[in-house]
Structures are given as structure tokens and as C-alpha cells.
Amino acid sequence: MFAAAKLGADEATARRAHHTGSDGEGSASESERAPRTLRDQPAKSDRTTRPSAGKKRKGDKQAAEAPEDTKEPDEIQQRTALAAKKYQRGGPSSKTTKVRSKRAQASLDHAKRRREEAAEEAARSEMLLTQDAGFLEAEGLERTYKFTQAQLAENLDLASAGKIFDLKLADFGPYALRYSDNGRHLLLGGKRGHLASIDWRSGRLGCELHVRETVRDVTWLHNQSLFAAAQKKYVYIYDHTGAEVHCLQKHVEPTALGFLPFHFLLASTGMTGQVVFQDVTEGAVVGSHRPGLGPSHVLKVNPYNAVVHVGHGNGTVSLWAPKQGKPLARMLCHRGPVQAMAIDRSGTYMATSGLDGRVKVWDIRNFKPLHDYKTKQPAQALDISQRGLLAAGWGPHVSVWKDALSTRVDNPYMTQLLPGVSTSALQFVPYDDVLGVGHSQGLSSLVIPGSGEPNFDAYVANPYQTTKQRQESEVKSLLDKLAPDTIALDPTFIARLDPRSQAQKMRESAVAERERYAQDKEEGKYLDSSVRNKTKGRNSTAKRYLRKTQANVTDLKKLQALERVEREKQQREQASDLPAEHKGALSMFYKDQR
Amino acid sequence: MKVKALSRSTADFTRETKSDIQILPRNVDPELHPLERAREYKRALNAAKVERMLAKPFIAGLSGHIDGIYSMAKNPWDLDRIVTGSGDGELRMWSLSSQETIWRAPEAHRGIVKGVCNIPGGDTDRFLSVGTDKMVKVWSRTEGAVADDGVTPETVASYSGKHAFSGIDHHRRRPLFATSSSLVEVWDVERSEPIANLTWGADTINTVRMNQTEVNVLASCGTDRSIILYDLRTNSPLAKLLMTLSTNAISWNPMEAFMFATANEDHNIYTFDMRRMDHAVNVLRDHVSAVMDVDYSPTGQELVSASYDRTLRLWDVGNGHSRDVYHAKRMQRVFCAKYTQDNKYILSGSDDGNLRLWRARASERVGIKSNRERATIEYADKLKDRFKYVPEVRKVLRHRNIPTAIKKASQTKQVMLQSRKRKEENRRKHEKDAKPRVPERKKAIIGTSSK
Predict the structure, then answer these.
(1) Which terminus of chain A has a lower count of CB atoms within 10 Å, N or C?
(2) What biological-process terms (Gene Ontology) are attached (chain A) (predicted)?
């Protein structure tokens, strides 16, 4: 099955998606369904194609009145063209610079054509998606944010109503929680040391243990067979039975964890403020950075480019990649500490909440604020669902806004009061209309219709994964493990053409080299060339310099030389402390040395 | 209130019995597939590494000849049979599937067997051979009396010429064949004397090749550095091309009848369009010694060349450099190489007397592949193609372990060519009336003339 698991070879994927989708159903039913699904489509992806969605609806009604077969093909084409934009890969291909070689031009044209075809085909394959997103609509004087979960449960089907539940765990709260990528498994970490993993739909308990120390955050690793917990002093990794597998001592007093599934990196930040990246396949620490802004409690991974966002006590959010010593960007988001953060899956929007009682929405493509929402208490937890719903937990309240990222909406989509608790963590369940709320009294599971992606890709995350499939996908994902240096703000930088000419590259590298040299020299890394001795021997350059210069002149150079003589002397003394078998070229031949 | 929440039935997404296929819905929304370029790059790199890991081009060495193999013929009507002629006058017929000799004539010729070719038509297994003993002999495995091993079988027919022969080729349809010696002679099978003598000033002809598509055209190359085209209808030469060094072998493109490739003494292979011979269509340069033989693949898209530098090289006709180089520890100077008719294998005959069988694509494996397997291979190929210009991938894809001698020689050659070029440029800078630059495709051509 994984032979076909090619996640995005332009044309291949589109075509294969076509085939896989059409596997189960007869072609007749497909053709019947096609127009209906297409008409539904703009509403489904209203987040991206919102401005045009209303117009399309109107046009739709007209089309229904007019004779069907004349208008329909045009409309389908338009829809497809619109949807194709979403599937356009490798950026806009509008740039039509001509190249000199005819053959190269032809191949460029060909590639462009293929790209467009692939996008179009991918758009057309949308009609094969079987599931429609959930929705909640108010009628008459009703308001959606007035509906309680109890009311919802009365109107929902039995299976969905079953997803509204509370886990009463009053002893060890407040709880941190994390759903696995396919939404099937839930990991709970109680502040007072309670760890549990649950297959939450069936209610089957995976493992449960008490670690007898503070647990501040938890996260799944690449699948549900391993998870990590940020405990009092270090990060620990446990397997699915609850057995401790590793203690990661490079993460000191961790407070927040994040996992980069394609790079197999575990990121953490903690009371020291350090941001640590550790490769969980081989254990190497691939990056450890000090923002120097005190303890931080917020860390989120941007799913679009795998950059790690860390919120600090001074209201800034810094963006980190494991191989860059300095943050990729720093944004001042709040007056006062950053309390919570959420990033949407397209990597366009970030929501932050601060102690100033505001939830701000940012465009992280250009680091600009878009708008903000007020909560009566500072929001302690934030999350953005797959379909772009923004949830905030403040005190005992949970508010959910719809379409709140691209525009400012006046009223929330849904609200829920959880009496007598204070929320500590929120997460929307992937591929489901459920919001998990971790709080001081355990966990509440709320149904938020329209939050989850209705159509999952079984090769990305399969809620119905079998053991065999899980094992195979583990192997595949390990083979495709990305190097930590592929993380950058723009994830498409890989394999892009360097437009500089060879001469230009040489020139620029020479300039950089000169600059580096100048800087090193300024920092006193090199002695002056007049001091440097060409030959090696007992005579040191510094000694020679001291000998040659006048005794009554004292300048910087001389001071440097004196310092160096002192250093050499120390080194010699250190070396002479060693016994004979440990020094000199023949030391390797001593018996006890081997 | 109108409400609907996502609610999937497990039965829709799990198979009922183990014999059912797994239900694996797809969604190509790019947001579900983050970092896809990085992941595809990684896959491309892995695919490139796997390709190099599986690259085992050598299949078998068929031993039997005591002297070196200097001539070879493949049978367009039979994939399995191959005939070779060696320096001690022995002829052998090999079965490639069983990898053994199935027929041999130890003293077929006195002296070197300079050329062999099959008689066309699937209904006969006759083939011709020429040697330096001035004889053309017709052989058949099935027609002659069964002889003991080691005894030369009877010939079906033989023709005697006036000079030592250097090459032979048969007409595609008619019972005609052409031989080369100090002149090109065209023979009718029924007659004991040649029916036509074709000459245009050459002293010795190296080889002669009949065009198998445009059947009335044949080409020869001689020691006077010429390549001559003849027309059988008028029994006269058509055009002559003089190059800086002599040509060792010619191969006609089986798909484009007007194209031919020549193996030159100057280490290069030149492809020509016979309609415009004032310049080469392409110059293929990678060998570090004289090219002894060249053969087109049946698709006409690829070439294999055998060289005096003890290597075989494989080329795409459109590219100037080889896509692969084959060598073996005990392989000596390679004198003949052929692409098999199924485009999958390569045969080489060398000085050390072994016939070697190679894969045409080093990492490809034979056998029926499942759909999944095929899809994986196609996907990997596509990825490699897409990322082939990325330095890391290119480095892996182009890496070859080459014998030190060849590596050194190619470095030296590179230096020589560069210095020659530099000198020419310097001279041009200081010359008053500098001549226009000669394109590389014209450099090796001294002149052309036609009749």
C-alpha cells in the first residue's frame, strides 16, 4: 500500500487520488453526485475563497432556474479554475521570462503546462471527497453562541452526542492534553503527576501511571507508541505501556513541548528559557538556543514550515529553527507575558493571548497584526482547528470564533461555561468536530460542529489505522526523515535555483570571507603579521616579538604578546605534569597506555 | 437549530474481511501535506542512493575464445544468438539465455576474423564471416554436417577476394553483401565475383556498413581519414567526408535512417546527418583513448561505445557526455560492443577473449513487476529527474568508481584541452585579423565533397 504513498508529486498524486477515490463507488453514482458536491464546494472552503463564495451562491440559483445543461459546463470550469488556485504548487507561475535556449524554454513550458494540469486535476478530484463538513445554524431568533452542549446533544446523532463527555479527574489537575495526529488517541498529563493515554472514542485505556512529580506538558511522538512528558526536572519518554524509555537531561525544567513529525525533533522550552531541539531517532541535540528572555511557558510548532514559535515573559514571540543560532524573527505581541498561542495549519495565521486580556490574530507571512478579541480574563489556552475555528479558554469559559482569522467577527460561534473549573489546555481533535478542554477538574470533550477536516488522507493520518499500517508508515516516515537544516520560514526554499552567476557567487563568498577576517582581527583573534613566526620550534612568536621590541615601549601588540607568553608557559607546565607515558610521540607504545 | 457534526461509521473505513482491499481515502489538499518539497527532495536523494546501490551492470563473462574478440554480430531476428570472431580465426555462436557456446568453428579463417554478419530473414541461421585470409565464408549451424567438437565444420559457401578483408555487412532484403578491403566490393550471393567495385581514393577501408532502413545506402570509413557514402542503385559514391583522424567504426541509426554515428581515433564519437555533413550533429566526448566500436540502441536514442581505454560508455544521443561507464578488472581493450535487440543488454568483446554481458541500465532488474513496484520505480525516476540539478542529488547520481588510470588520463586530457583552448584565445586576442571561431562540431571536419 505504501508504494503509492506519494504525498504530492504534482501530477502523480492528483491522478492517483483520482483512482483511489473512485475505487469504492460505481461511476454512475459519481456522475450523479458530482454537480451537487461542486455546488457545495465554495461553502466548504469558504475560508480561502470567501469573497467569491456569496456571488457564486447567487449565480447558482440562477443556474437552477435557467436550463441546466447550457450553464453547467461553464460554471464547472470556473469552479475548477478557482479551486485549482488552491492546488497550485511551487508558487505563482505567471512569470514568463524567456530563456535563450529553445530547448530549455520548451521544457520550461512543458513543466508549467504539467503543473497547471495537475492543479486542475487535483481540483477536479475534489468531487470525489465523500464527507461534508459539520455545521451549526441558528434559526429565527436563536444565536449559535447561546447553544449549550446539552442542547446540541439533543439534536445530534447518537454517535456525535456520545463525544460530549467529561472526565472527572479532580485529584491531579489541571491537565495538559494532546491528541494524536489522526485524532484517535488522547494523552493526558495532570500537573500533579498523572499520565494517561486513552483511545478516547472507544474509551479504551492505553496506559496510566503516576510519576510522583510535576508534569507540565505532554506530547505524542511520531505515533501513539511513544510519548514525552515535561516533568519537574527533565523530559521523559514513555512507551505505550507506560514504561519509561528515556530521560532527556538536556531539557532542563521543561514547561512546554512540541514535536516536529517530519524531522523527528522534540522541541522544548522551560524555566531556563532555553529552546532545545532533540532528534528522537538518534538522540542528538541538534539545536539549543538561549533567547535570554527568562522562563517561557509557551511553545507551538508551525505545521506549515516546522518553525518553532516560543512565547516569552516580555510579550515577544520568537521563531526558531534548530540550526540557526538566532531567532528567525521576533515579534512583540503583547504588553505583558504571552499566555498561549495557536498557529493555523496553512501557516498564515497565528493567534496569541497575553496577560493584557487580549487574543490577537497575526499574519505570520509578514508578521503584521490583523485584529484582536477581548476576553474578560486572560486566555490560558488557544487553539485553531483544521477548518480555521479559533478557540480560547479563559477561566471557566471556552469561546470559539468562526471565520475569526481573516476577518474580525463580533460574536463568537460557540461558547461554553464549565462551572467551577479553570481551563488549562485546549485542542481541537484532528478530523473530528470535537474540542478537548483540559482543566483543573479533568477533561471535557465538547462538540464544535464544523471544526474538523471532513476528508482525511489515509496516507497522512488515518483514524482507522491498523497496526500493520502504523508499522509501515513508521518505516516510511523514518526513511523520509528530514534534516534539521530544511527548516526555514519559507519551506519551499529547497532545490530552488540560485539565480546568481558563478562569478557573483565567488565574489560574494570572497566578500564574506574578508568581512569575517576583519571581524576576527578586530576581536584580536590574530596577532599582527609582523609578529607571526614562520617556523615552528621552542621559540614562540610572542617571545621573539618581545625580544625584538624596545623594552620601554608598551603598546597593545606588546600586551598581546606578553599574554601569549604567559599562556604558553601555563600550557607547558600542564604538559609537564603528565607522566612520561602520556606525553610525547612515543606515548602510544607504552604498555599501560593501551 | 440545524446541526450536523462529523460522524464517520467505522464500517465505511475498515475492510470487512482480510481478502478485501484496504480503504484508503485520499485528499490532495496541499494544507494536509506540509513540507512536501523538502520531503520529495529527501525521497529523491534516497532514490538516487538506491539507484547507485543497485547499480550492478555486469551480468556475465562468457569465456571460450583463446584470442581476443575483434568482430561480433547480433541477429535482428533472434534475441538469443550472437556470433563472435576472434584473432586466431575462430568463430563462435553463443546462446545468451544459457550463456554458453552452442556452435564453434576453430579454424574458420587463417588470421583474424575481421567481420561477421547475419543473413537476414528469420528462416535461416546462416551468417557470413570475412578474414584477413581474403576469404568470405558462409556458415550455418544447422545445415552443415554435425562435426565433433574442435573440428571445423563445413562451410555452406565461400568466396575468395583479392585483398585481405576488413569488414562485411549484408543488405537488409536482397541477397547482396558488401565487403571492405582496399576497396568496397558488392557481392551477389549467386556469383563468385563481386558485382561492383566502389572506390573513391582510399588506400585501405576500415569497415563498411549498410543502412538497414534506407537500404540502398552504405557507408565506409578508411585509413585516409575519410567517410564515404555510396549508393547501390548507381553503384557509385555519393559523398565524402574527411576528418582530422581516421574513423574506426560506423553505426546507422535504426530509427532515423539519415543519421549515423562514427567512432573516431580522436577519442570522440561523432553523429552525422548524411544530408548535411559539413558539421557533426553531436560530439560525444568522454573516452580517453581511441573509440573502437559504436552501436545504436534499437530505439535510436542511445549509443554504446567500446574504446581502447578498456571501458564501455553509454550515451544519450542528445547529450555530449556519457551517462554511464562500464569497466571490469580483467577487461582489456574493447574492440566491439553491441546493444541487444531488446534494448536491455549490452555485449562487449575485448582483447582478453571474453564476451561480456552487461545491463543497459545498471540498476534495472528484469522480471515481472507488480503495479506497486512499477509505480514506486516510476515515482522514483520522476523524482530523480526533477531534482537532478540539486547538488547533493547530482553528486550521488553522477558518482562512479573509475579505474585510476582512466581518471588520471581524463584529468590530463582536460588540462590539455583547456590549455589548447587558452592558447587559441590568447592568440586570437593578439591577432590583427582573427578568423571566426570554429564550432566544436566542425573542428574535426577537414572537408566534404559530393559527386
Answers:
(1) C
(2) maturation of SSU-rRNA from tricistronic rRNA transcript (SSU-rRNA, 5.8S rRNA, LSU-rRNA)
For each of chain A's 594 residues, which pLDDT tens digit applies? 333 333 334 434 333 434 433 333 333 333 333 333 333 333 333 333 333 333 444 434 443 444 444 556 677 777 777 777 888 876 555 556 678 889 889 988 898 899 889 888 988 888 889 899 999 999 999 999 999 999 999 999 999 999 999 999 999 989 999 999 999 999 999 999 999 999 999 999 999 999 999 999 999 999 999 999 999 999 999 999 999 999 999 999 999 999 999 999 999 999 999 999 999 999 999 999 999 999 999 999 999 999 999 999 999 999 999 999 899 999 999 999 999 999 999 999 999 999 988 999 999 999 999 999 999 999 999 999 999 999 999 999 999 999 999 999 999 999 999 999 999 999 999 999 999 999 999 999 999 999 999 999 999 999 999 999 999 999 999 999 999 999 999 998 888 877 888 889 899 999 999 998 888 888 877 766 665 555 556 677 778 788 877 777 788 888 888 898 888 888 877 776 766 666 666 776 766 544
**Residue B428 belongs to a domain:** no
Using a CB-CB cut-off of 8 Å, the residues of chain B touching A346 are 31
Nearest CA in chain A to B376: A3
Distance of residue A17 Cα from the nearest chain B Cα, in angstroms? 5
How many domains does chain B contain in total? 1
**pTM higher than the cut 0.90:** no
Provide the domain limits for residue B342.
Answer: 58-359
CATH number of the domain enclosing B137: 2.130.10.10
Backbone CA torsion sign across A283, A289, A292, A293: negative
30-89 in chain B: CB under 8 A from chain A: 30-43, 46
Exposed/middle/buried for A186, CB within 10 Å: 0-12, 13-18, 19+? buried
* Cα A268 from Cα A217, distance rounded (Å): 10
Which chain A residue is nearest to residue B389, measuring alpha carbons?
Answer: A495
Residue pairs spanning A and B at CB distance below 8 A:
181
- Please tell me the distance from the alpha carbon of residue B282 to that of residue B319, in angstroms, as a whole number: 8
Candidate from B9, B10, B372 with C-beta closest to A3: B372
Assess A182–B contact: CB distance below 8 Å, yes or no.
no
The ipTM value here is: 0.82
Distance from the A57 Cα atom to the nearest Cα atom in chain B, whole angstroms:
19
Task: Report yes or no on B345 lying in a domain.
Answer: yes
Task: Give the residue among B161, B142, B147 at the shortest CA–CA distance from B205.
Answer: B161
Annotated domain spans of chain A: 2-88+102-130, 150-473, 520-589
Helix/strand/coil for A305: coil
Q: Are A412 and A448 in contact (CB under 8 A)?
A: no
Contact A3 B27 (CB under 8 A): no
Name chain A contacts of B30, Cβ cutoff 8 Å: 8, 86-87, 89
Within-domain flag for B4: no
Helices H / strands E in chain B, number of each: 6, 30
Q: Give the CA distances from residue B212 to residues A385, A483, B34, in Å, rounded to whole numbers and listed in that order.
A: 68, 54, 54
- DSSP characters for A341-380? EEE-TTSSEEEEEETTSEEEEEETTTTEEEEEEE-SS--S
Interface test with A, best of B1, B6, B21 (most A CBs within 10 A): B6
> In angstroms, what is the C-alpha Rg of chain A?
30
Could you say which of B24, B35, B40 has the minimum Cβ distance to residue A20? B24
Task: Tell me which residues of chain A, numbers 57 to 86, contact chain B at a CB-CB cutoff of 8 Å.
Answer: 86
**B380 domain-assigned:** no
Are residues B350 and B69 in contact, defined by beta-carbon separation less than 8 angstroms?
yes
